[in-house]
Every structure is written in structure tokens, then in C-alpha cells.
Amino acid sequence: MNTAMTGFLTGFAKGASKKIEKEREDEETLMLNRFKIASANKKVADEERSAEEKILQERLGFVNTYTPQATDQQKIALLSNPFLVSQLQDKIKSNQIDTIDVDGKSVVDLDKYLYINKDKIPTEFTTVKAYMDSLQDKTTGEYVPLQSRSVMGANVSPSTTKMQSMAAGLGGTVDELLSYENRKPKQPREMFGSIVAGSLKKDQTIDQRFETAAQEALDAQQQFGEDSPESKAANENFNVIKDFKDSLDPKEATWASYISNLKLAIVKSKDPNEQSQLRAKLNREQKMVGDDKGADGKVPTASVMSNLLRNAASNAVEIMFGARVKDQLVFTTNDVGITTFKYIGTDEKIQKDIREEGRRAMSRALSPYLDNGVPVNDDVRLAMSVHQYKFDGTGRVSEQSEEPVPVPVPVPPPKAKIPEITTKEEYDALPSGATYIDTTDNNKTKRKS
Known about the structure:
By secondary structure, the protein is mainly α. It has helices spanning 3-66, 72-80, 82-93, 110-113, 128-134, 160-169, 174-178, 206-224, 229-247, 250-268, 272-290, 292-295, 302-321, 348-366, 378-386, 424-429; strands spanning 99-102, 105-108, 114-116, 150-151, 154-155, 193-195, 329-333, 339-343, 370-371, 374-375, 435-437, 443-445.
């Protein structure tokens, strides 16, 4: 080989060696940067996990203290929803929550407040520990594969020993760190429990509930349209709560509106499990007032109940028909605020429509006091009897119950108008014996010809 060729090859080898070394350095720098990104992601994940564990332990402490009777499934539902626990804590602090006695200790009545979406809870969550363990940060375990890279036939990728050294310097192993390299943002945890609709509103005053119902009616109208089923249901709820507010004392009205909202929640719910829990709550409340002691301060006396029904019918009829037949509807309010109405027109269809609207309003007002169609106590039954409700052999309201049709006051036919005569021609046109008004505003009778 001549000198020129030898020199060329030597120079090429030195150049190749430098290029390979540079590529190797670049690969190590790239690998180190990947480890640094992964390490930063792992640090964030560790901090989030630590904070979440602390919160969960605090939440578990609350659950064990105030709901020690809870099943594992109930505890998991409570732990999964931070808003639920926060709401219960607020109600406990303000002493606005119902409790039950368990082994001599007053605890939160979970059956009343907690709705569990059983279908969402994974089957492997059989214990609280299993749920807590599942919350450990789960990385994807996926990262860009480590592939050897060659330059001019030489492997320029960092060696296994080199990578292990890099990872150890950043507090982990190669696989552990790189599993955090492409860590996805933390996703919200699945929530398996919620507050039973309307259950924490029981402590609201009737005035607060009236304002809430008014706002809900307005919201439904704006969201769904004035003639939508949602808007009509919200309006009916508002009207019946207004009847309670106007006719009952605050304690009675608060209970009645609570039950009315509970029934509305059952109708609105699309979840069979939630509906079942709401019905159980409703049954407990209504069974409770079936006892004379339980009814005290919640269910009005027969006379007050009867007045409530009259007011409900009058209010509904005035809203529906007041503008259409205002001259044929007479409303009377006595000294104690009881309003009644009478239709004095002769249109049988309008009369029938008015009767049916009044009856529907009475049924809405009665809703809290009927347990599957059966009055919750004798006062309710007596008040209903006064308004012509009938009952079948099981004590349920009969479908044949009808409100008596108001008897219209006879309207006398209009009197014939007496003509005013101002000219001889008008006088001559009058028949003999006709009465007329002359130019002096006096009534006169035309002489017979």
C-alpha cells in the first residue's frame, strides 16, 4: 500500500473514531434527559399519592367515627366521593342531620342519606383495604423501547451498566423511571356514592324551600322550555309548596315540602337503585307519621288539612282560569285566610274543567299524606272525606272519588233596552203602548192609536 493510501485510511479511521465518540456522548445525553423527565414525573406522582393518602386517611377517620356501622360497600362509597363526606361533615357540625342509635352511640343514618351506585363498584373491591390499595399510582409501564443504535458498525447506545448508573443517580431503576416517562395526567377517581336527592334539604325552612322551588321552576323553563314535562313538573312542585307555605304552620309546611321534593326526586331519577333508596326513605317518613306521636308537628289536624285543600284548589283555579273567566269566578277569603271559589257562569265545559283542575290541585297537596294511596292517619282521612274522597276496602283512595260540581247561580236574562226618542220619525215608528225615553230623560209610554 502506498504512502498516500496509508495516510488516507489513517485519517479516515481517526475521523470515524471521533464521530462514533460524539454520537455515543449524544446518546448518553439523550438517555440522561429521558431519565430526568421520568424522575420529575415520578416525583409529582409520589407527592400526589402522598397527599391523596393523607386525605383518604382523614376521610376514613370520619367514616369510622360517625358511621362505624357502615358496611365495606358503604365505606367505599363514602371514601370515593370527597364532596359527599364534606356535605355530611358540614351537617354534623351544624347539628342538622338525622342520627340513629347503634350500641348506645349516636351515628349518622347512612340508609337515609347515602346512595350507592352498586353497578360501578368493581367486584374486586370487597374490602376497604382492596379499594385503598387500588389507589396506588398506576403508571402505564410503557415507554419508548431502548434500541441499540449503530454508527459505522459501532454500537453508540449507552451500556446497561451506564444506564443503571444514570437511573440510580436519580433515585430509581431503569424500568421504574422510564415507566413514568410518558405518564398521563392524573384522572379523576370514579365515585361510587352520592347524597340521596333531596335528603339534606330536610333542614331547610319552608321559606328557603319556597325560594329554591321558585328558582328551579325558572331554571327548568329556561333550560327545557315552558311547555316541557320538566318545566311543568317544576311548576307544579312550586305551586304545591306555595300552598303548604300559605296554609300550614312552618313545621308542618317544612315536612310536607320535604316529602313533596322526595316524591319529585323519585319521578326524576333514571336510576332504579336510586329510586329504590328514595322510596325506602319515603316509606320510613310516612310510616313514622302514621303514629300519633310521629305525626305531631308534621301532619296538620283535619280542619287545617281541609283548609289546605280548599286553598290549593282555589289557587290553581285562579292561575288557570282567572284571566279567561274572571267575571264568572267569585273568590272569597275569610278572616283566617281560607279562600274558596264559585263559578257563576253557565258553560258546562268550563265548569267541568274548573272542577277537574281544582281536584288535581287537591291531589298534589295531598301527595305527602298518602302512603300508596292510603291516608297516613285519621286526620287526613277525615279531611279527605269532607271533600268527597271515597276509599276502597283496603283504605286506598277510590278512583270514583269526585268533587261535588259547584251549582251555578242562575243568571237572569238581560233586560230589554228602552229606546231614546229624539225625532218625530222615531216616535211614529214605535208600536202603540211601547215605553220610551224622551228628550227630557223621562220614561213615557206611547198612547195607543
